[in-house]
Amino acid sequence: MRQIQRGIYFEDSYLGVTLGGLVYSHGTIMIDAPLRIEDARSWRSTLLNQRGGSNRVLVNLDSHPDRTLGARSMECAVVTHQKAANVFRTRSSIFKGQGMEMGAMWEEYDDAIGLRWANPDATFTDTMSLHWGGPEIVLEYHPGPAIGAIWAVIPDEKVVFIGDAVVLNQPPFLADAEFPAWHETLDLLEQAYHEYMIISSRGGLVTIDQVQAQNAYLHKAQQLIQEYIDTKEQPEAMDELIPDLIQGITFSNRWREKYQQRLRYGLYQYHSHHYGSPSVVETPIVPDSEI
Question: How many other C-beta atoms are found inside a 10 Å radius of the C-beta of residue 214?
């Protein structure tokens, strides 16, 4: 766990997403949840040892399974955006996995299937402020990377947790992407938060140069997708975009197949959401040698 300001921590050693912890006299505000039950226990214990107040609340920065499957294990109230909460209403109470691998980290956790969701206890539409005996924490809606995507901003400490708005050393999730809104979100981050410590949920500390690089990557992805749509109709053939979209991203070879599948799933779902692809999402997993 790394302390970045008094009472403000992040942890990137657990499977899934980078976690945040805000420890104040009233209690602890946790940013996202670990996937594994044993990690949830460890994270709760680590934060308890910081000797804040006895109350706890969990903030989910969107509805992605990587950050929400472990929410029940945190044993506290859950806050998220209203649109993210609406996603939970469409899910069964028990997680059954997906019809197709999505290139997410929950797929690395054998016990993910069968976990029960923790439905949100409180939601908001634009902003929500939390006062827990320390500086104000402002939850803000910042659309683009996911349905109901939010940030947790601590203005007095110049710290912001941005969820998946920027991801480091891995491709972003494109399935629910809204490119125009995402560009606006990143433009705002670059212009208004350049003096902040920026924490990504997939990579930790982020520089402004990395914000700009993410924006450039998304412009490239948007252009490639549009050029494809202008010339072809079958979403299954969007695999041919993957080499261009994975080029230049530095990561361990261990994750290559997963990240290729993340892009494959994201492209197909993006096509489906925006251009009316067939509802069936089963597409073949293509071996590395064919990409």
Answer: 23
Res 99: pLDDT:
66
Mean pLDDT across 103-122: 91
List C-alpha distances in Å: 22 to 124, 161, 222, 240, 245.
20, 11, 36, 43, 35
Query: Cα-flanking dihedrals φ and ψ of residue 130, to 5°?
Result: -120, 130
Euclidean distance between CA atoms 219 and 229, whole angstroms: 15
Residue that wins the pLDDT comparison between 286 and 23:
23
Residues across the chain: 291
Within a domain: 180 = yes
For the chain, how many structural domains are there in total?
A: 1
Q: Is 21 left (phi over 0), alpha (psi -120 to 50) or beta?
A: beta
**Rounded average pLDDT over 215-230:** 92
Which structural domain range is residue 70 located in? 2-207
Give yes or no for residue 219 having a pLDDT over 80.
Answer: yes
CATH number at 110 reads 3.60.15.10
Question: In the chain, at which residue ranges do the beta strands (DSSP E only) sit?
Answer: 2-5, 8-11, 19-24, 27-31, 55-59, 77-81, 122-124, 127-130, 137-141, 150-154, 159-161, 197-200, 204-206
Task: State the pTM of this model.
Answer: 0.91
Residue closest to 225 by CA, chosen among 237, 213, 211, 210: 237
Within-domain flag for 149: yes
Q: What whole-number percentage of the chain has pLDDT above 70?
A: 93
- Closest by alpha carbon to 16, among 70, 73, 55, 93? 70
Looking at the domain assignment, is residue 61 inside a domain?
A: yes
